[in-house]
Write a structure and sequence with these properties.
Radius of gyration: 19 Å
Largest sheet: 7 strands, parallel
Amino acid sequence: MIVITGATGRTGKATAEALLANGEKIRVVGRDATRLAALATQGAEVFVGNVEDSAWMTQAFSDASAVYLVLPEDVSQQDLRAHQERVSDSYAAAIRDANVRYVVNLSSLGAQHSKGTGPIVGLHNQEQKLNRVPGLNVLHLRAAYFMENLFMSMEPLHAAGILPGALQSHAPMPWIATRDIGPRAAARLAARDFSGSAVQELHGQRDLSMQEAASVVGRAIGKPDLVYVQMPSSAFGAALLKAGLPQKTSDLIVEMCDGANAGLMVPQEQRSARNTTPTTLESFAESVFAPAYLRKT
């Protein structure tokens, strides 16, 4: 039995579907049985409850040969970091109490740092908590910048015709489509071919600057002259507040961008076949972003 947390999210769902396609027996964990119904019809066992409750999570992880952990990034939380700590405490206790021996943990580039990276600090702390569980073999998948983050710019793109953000304009960085994380996580969960505490980075298909990304997106939506505009951190934070994010969450996202600009999220591995994934930003922009953008036009 392989247990999948975050099974209604992008990477959790993709991981679950990849495992089911290979005939694995899985249990999917979430708060809403309705949202898990599609996976249930494919053969997944459903377990519904609260990820902050370690006793409940211990039941969810019972008899698990391996577990996929996703730390929720619920931006509606008034104190996102406190929420992250409660969940990672629950996960670590439940992994220990259920005597789980293998975990694939979704993390991020930059998770080696204990401060200065906003919500990624929560991933750092989860890595450390799991590393301290006796007898656990854990693989931390440190993923690149999600292509799906472009959706945060959808409204200003419609309103002002620009792609705004707080990241540097011309610094190349790795981008990954979340749909590519699932098959990698599923393969490692099924193989259980890691021991102790291990790290693998996932770099996406290639490195792109924000300005290069804007050009790709612009061509996909019929705006070939689209430009990226780097905003001062204070103005970016104010825009996040105006969009409805809580103050603490806004501050964390600004800190993450500042940390990235300061070089705290630079990959530690050289790009290779092992950490390169197939989806190009062009493909993502054309098949995922552009249709969503055009539906709102």
